[in-house]
Amino acid sequence: MTENDRLKFFCDVVLGKLCRWLRIMGYDSKIASDELSDRDILEEAKRENRVVLTRDKDLKKMKSFVDVFLLGSKDFESQIKDLFSHFSLNTYFPSDSRCSHCNSELKKIEKNRWECIGCGHEYWKGSHWKRIKDIQRKLNDL
Ligand SMILES: [Zn+2]
Questions:
Q1: Do strands 122-124 and 113-116 pair parallel, antiparallel, or not at all (unpaired)?
Q2: pTM value?
Q3: 77: how many CB neighbours lie within 10 A of its CB?
């Protein structure tokens, strides 16, 4: 396990899809709500020791003690590639996937079936897995 395997993220509001995928890949990731100002986002990220992910150049320029990573592209695949290569994040299948809806941990309830301990959403091996494999393939082409 490297240092970056434990990174936590705080995604700005337009990065919902990226945030959900980070959770699936096992990274603790929160999404900012609409009401938060840029300053609020930076303060919350600092308190919770999260890296801020944003598409907002002004937020990137603000003075803070928080690591802010600017995503240059609107395109989800470019975003996830940029992010994973920049921080050298793991691209193997995570043993500790988090709930893509609420960021809680998943509990195994039976073979190939998991339940979110936060919202109760169930996950099983199916089409979801195929999408994860697709993303992994793309990340592994980096
Ligand atoms: Zn959940």
A1: antiparallel
A2: 0.89
A3: 12
The stretch 32-37 carries a mean pLDDT of 93
Residue 71 Cα, ligand 1 centroid: separation in angstroms?
A: 26
| CA 96 – ligand 1 centroid, Å | 13
The reported pLDDT for the residue numbered 126 is 79
- Which tokens belong to 103? 């960021």
The per-residue pLDDT for range 49-60, each reduced to its tens digit, is 999 999 999 999
| Cα 76 to middle of ligand 1, angstroms | 22
28 Cα: distance to centroid of ligand 1 (angstroms): 12
Asked whether 73 and 18 are in contact (CB, 8 A), the reply is: no
Q: Report the alpha-carbon distance of residue 107 to residue 105 in Å, rounded.
A: 7
Contact (Cβ atoms closer than 8 angstroms) between residue 99 and residue 121: yes
